Amino acid sequence: MALKIKKILVSQPKPENDKSPYLEMAERTNIKIDFRPFIKVEGVCAKEFRQRRIDILEHTAVIFTSRTAIDHFFRMTEELRVAVPVSMKYFCISESVALYLQKYIVYRKRKIFFGKNNFKDLVELEIIRHSSERFLVPLSDIHKQEIPRILDKNKVKYTKAILYRTVSNDLSDLKDFNYDILVFYSPSGIKSLFQNFPDFVQNNTKIACFGPHTARAVKKAGLRLDIEAPSAKAPSMTMAIENFIKEYNKNGAVK
């Protein structure tokens, strides 16, 4: 008979407050949950960016898909000592990302447009209306392929600017890697698992993941995918995990 689920490792930073769904689930289920980010973001240095021969000032607009992209765009302009003109237009995937621009610019004095958290909608609602602009798109080395695909389909003039990259964290201090469930949110997390633990064998360890891209990475790595979200019954990762635990612990698992 299988052992009951008692310990979970979530491959993300520990929540900053007690209102996290994970911490609430831990309290309800009396299960220990540890948090440890498997990946981190590193900025591309100015020297490397120069080698790509991208001139920021040749562009009249910037497309931001995340707050991280905003941080690294303005970091790079500072390192290159580029003065971004007031005339630069900003197109953001959501209002919350757009409002984050206030960290770097006087919001009310700039031309800012945003979508409804969907890149396709942003392109169709705002970017196509400004098709005469020359767009710069700050991205990570690992990014959604739908971004260039949608821009190409709509004949948008743009330049991809890789300003940051996703790399594996050093997890060598995790000597006790004896968890019942490992939770992943990106393909990079799966890559980090095997970089840190090349001899990892799944055995009875359950793998949980969020999103179709991560699910494909799990299967490609030869792992068994036990818990997947979102789904019709479990739109969130915590709900999917809790549903699984209830069934698993009820159906014959022992302490």
Written account of the structure:
This protein has 255 residues and is of the alpha/beta class. It folds into 2 domains: 7-38 and 172-250, Rossmann fold (3-Layer(aba) Sandwich), CATH 3.40.50; 42-166, Rossmann fold, CATH 3.40.50. 33% of the residues lie in helices and 21% in strands. It has 9 helices and 11 strands. It has helices at residues 21-29, 46-51, 67-79, 95-100, 119-127, 146-153, 187-196, 212-220, 237-250, and strands at 7-10, 32-35, 39-43, 61-64, 89-92, 111-114, 135-140, 158-168, 181-184, 206-210, 227-229. The strands form 2 sheets. The chain has a 6-stranded mixed sheet. Strands 2-1-9-10-11 form a 5-stranded parallel sheet, with helices on both faces. The longest helix is centred in the C-terminal third of the chain and has 14 residues, at 237-250. It is elongated. The N and C termini lie close together (10 Å). 28% of the residues are buried. The model has no long low-confidence stretch (mean pLDDT 93).
